[in-house]
Design brief:
It is a single chain. The protein is mostly helical. The protein has a single domain, classed as Hypothetical protein af1432. It contains eleven helices and no strands. Helix 3 crosses helix 7. The longest helix is centred in the last third of the chain and has 25 residues. The structure holds adenosine-5'-diphosphate and nickel (II) ion (NI). The site of adenosine-5'-diphosphate (ADP) has 20 residues, from helix 8 and helix 10.
């Protein structure tokens, strides 16, 4: 199989797995991550096939989204083998999909990602900020019955992985302080950092406007 045929097969597999999610992980998220990864790949000497394969598959076995991630990882492994990926390539792709999450980055020993992995992580994080990020946070908050905003709940400035994953009184606006506004400083590649800075400012402007309207100051 050519690289192009392999990626077409992975795209179809990802589409089948991701097209009925209602928490902001629909296939449109995947397509934006792919586009952004392609944009970053123009500036970085990473393996494009590994990068794009991992980008297509990065949320398929997410333990937030599926009850049995291990079975899905095995399914992905078998699928990649069937379309001629080597054991080494499969391990690299699954290492990326397994380790790119924000909560993993908060652990005491954050995983080290290859350049391909860093690009997928940057592309995924760019989709969590800016206008798209604002929309996804509201969409996710609605799907999970979160409160919009509570001025009495203060953002928790630093959290470890377990604390982040066990938040029980999250508000949509708090999520900006506890995750989204931290992502720009965490970008790996200069290209992503530059894109992130503009999107970051857009979120700061949004939050200023939101609070001014909340207090009827505007
Ligand atoms: P990703 O696919 O970008 O790794 P997540 O799985 O963490 O993202 O979440 C999907 C989307 O929902 C992201 O845009 C994220 O910022 C948003 N989101 C996650 N948790 C919350 C939350 N508690 N409140 C509001 N939005 C959230
Ligand atoms: Ni994602």
């Amino acid at each position: 199989m050519t690289h192009k045929e392999q990626l077409a097969a992975i795209k179809a597999f990802s589409f089948k797995k991701m097209s009925n999610d209602a928490t902001g992980h629909n296939f449109d998220h995947i397509q934006r991550v792919i586009k952004t990864a392609q944009r970053i790949l123009k500036d970085e000497p990473a393996d494009a096939t590994i990068t794009l394969a991992a980008a297509y598959l990065h949320d398929v076995a997410d333990d937030k989204l599926v009850s049995d991630p291990a079975t899905l990882e095995q399914e992905i492994r078998d699928f990649l083998q069937n379309i001629d990926f080597t054991e080494e390539q499969i391990n690299e792709i699954l290492y990326i999909t397994h380790n790119l999450s924000f909560s993993k980055s908060l652990s005491a020993n954050p995983p080290k990602l290859s350049l391909a992995g860093q690009i997928v992580q940057d592309a995924d994080r760019l989709d969590a900020i800016g206008a798209i990020g604002i929309t996804r946070a509201i969409y996710y908050g609605g799907a999970n019955s979160e409160t919009i905003y509570d001025p009495n709940i203060q953002p928790r400035k630093s959290m470890n992985k377990a604390e982040y994953r066990n938040l029980d009184n999250e508000t949509i606006i708090n999520h900006f302080y506890e995750k989204l506004l931290k992502l720009t400083a965490m970008m790996n590649t200069p290209t992503a950092k530059k894109i992130a800075e503009q999107r970051h400012q857009y979120m700061l402007d949004f939050l200023d406007e939101f609070k001014a309207e909340w207090d009827a100051k505007k």
